[in-house]
Amino acid sequence: MKNCIYVLIALIGLIACKSDPNKKSSEEAQTVPIDEQTLRKIDVHAHYRHARGYLPTLFNNWNMKAVLVDVAREDSTGVVRSWTPYLDLAQAQPDLFYLCSSLIGVGIDDPDFARKNIERLSQEIDAGAKMVKVWKNFGMVTKDASGNFIQIDDTRLQPIWDFLKDKGIPVMAHIAEPLQAWRPLDPTSPHYGYYKNNPQYHAYKIPEIPSYETIIAARDRWIENNPDLEILCAHIGSMSHDVDLVAERLDKFPNMQVELAARFGDLAKQDSEKVRRFFEKYQDRILFGSDYGNSEPADEMTPKELENEQKDLNASYERLWKYLSSSDSLELRGQQTVGLELPMDVLQKVYFQNTANFLSLQ
Fold first, then answer.
1. Which terminus of the chain is less hemmed in, N or C, by CB atoms within 10 Å?
2. How many CB atoms lie within 10 A of CB 81?
3. CATH class of 40-358
4. Where in the numbering of this chain does the Amidohydrolase-related domain appear (predicted)?
5. Residue spans per domain, the chain
């Protein structure tokens, strides 16, 4: 089935031929590549920690910019972040990158916890951060002094949400994991490889981690308690296995949006027509994200490794475009599916306009 974009091109070409016999035929006009290179895009969830010589050309070819999303983690040395390299990269290439700061609950028992984090976030917002990310540390990893897992609706965090509301800064929330994290490893799951290689997040084998339902309920209470805070639920709100669950929340919480990063495999497991209807109904509240990035400095890689990395990255963006824009058969995270063939106006919102609106970009 021809993509609707090409059908439109054909109609334009046919009209042109009637007015000028020297113009290309409609059959020839169908080959004009109005595709991924002409639609503006923002990848709202990216992790390009290190500069790459090929990235400006690749992003320009895709007509795309990206948000560098910081993640705050705790290890034996303390809190580890990517903010500094992201800031350096965004300042060096402001035409390609936007910034997202982060928040973690480490030290929440300190009476000055909120004040200290507000001061830091204020500085990073002044430096260009358009958004603040909270991660699955909330609910699954970080504990307070009493040994309780810190949930995202903890009242000790409220001064920070109030500050972000006043500043007009939205929050990206990666709260919980896919439901598969609380289930036995399933080789047919799109998350099999991740939990096999990252057992620390395979909650099924870590009984002390609160249940999926407990963490999602805390997330929902947090959204409900902060109706004036704009919230982007990362990874389709950790409900990517069932778009009906996502729809329920979008209907209930007008301040909630979702982004798609690293959950295309879950969409591919569901009926394509059902998923397509979901996109069309919530076309103003779905944002494109990939979770793509890099972790090694270029000078520690061989030219061949960099070449392969570039090819793989381009192919990955191409695969996601194919899923969203065409009706072709394809495989995503081991799942066989057919593309959604979304209309051009929906693609334009998902790939660009919704993120531009959400982050108040010019």
1. C
2. 14
3. alpha beta
4. 104-313
5. 1-34, 40-358
The Cα-based distances of 91 to 97, 129, 236, 278, 360 in angstroms read 8, 11, 29, 37, 19
Average pLDDT, 10 consecutive residues per value, the chain (362 residues)? 37 35 32 64 98 97 97 90 97 97 98 98 98 97 97 98 98 98 96 96 97 98 98 98 98 98 98 98 98 97 98 97 96 96 96 98 84
- The alpha carbon of 195 is separated from its chain's Cα centroid by a whole number of angstroms, namely 19
Length of the chain equals 362
CA atoms within 13 A on the CB side of 26: 13
User: CB under 8 Å to 227, separation ≥6 — which residues?
Assistant: 253, 254, 255
Going by C-alpha positions, the residue among 290, 239, 289, 267 that lies closest to residue 336 is 267
The phi and psi torsions of 280 (rounded to 5 degrees) equal -70, -40
**Adjacent-strand bridge partners of 81:** none
Contacts of 270 (CB under 8 A, 6+ apart): 241, 242, 243
* 3-state per-residue secondary structure call for the chain: CCCHHHHHHHHHHHHHHHHCCCCCCHHHHCCCCCCCCCCCEEEEEEEECCCCCCHHHHHHHHCEEEEEECCCEEECCEEECCHHHHHHHHHHCCCCEEEEEEECCCCCCCCCHHHHHHHHHHHHHHCCEEEEEECCHHHHCCECCCCCECCCCCHHHHHHHHHHHHHCCCEEECCCCCHHHHCCCCCCCCCHHHHHHCHHHCHHHCCCCCCHHHHHHHHHHHHHHCCCCCEEEHHHHCCCCCHHHHHHHHHHCCCEEEECCCCHHHHHHCCHHHHHHHHHHCCCCEECCCCCEECCCHHHCCHHHHHHHHHHHHHHHHHHHHHHHCCCEEEECCEEEECCCCCHHHHHHHHHHHHHHHCCCC
- The amino acid occupying position 89 is L
Compute and round to an integer the Cα radius of gyration of the chain. Answer: 22
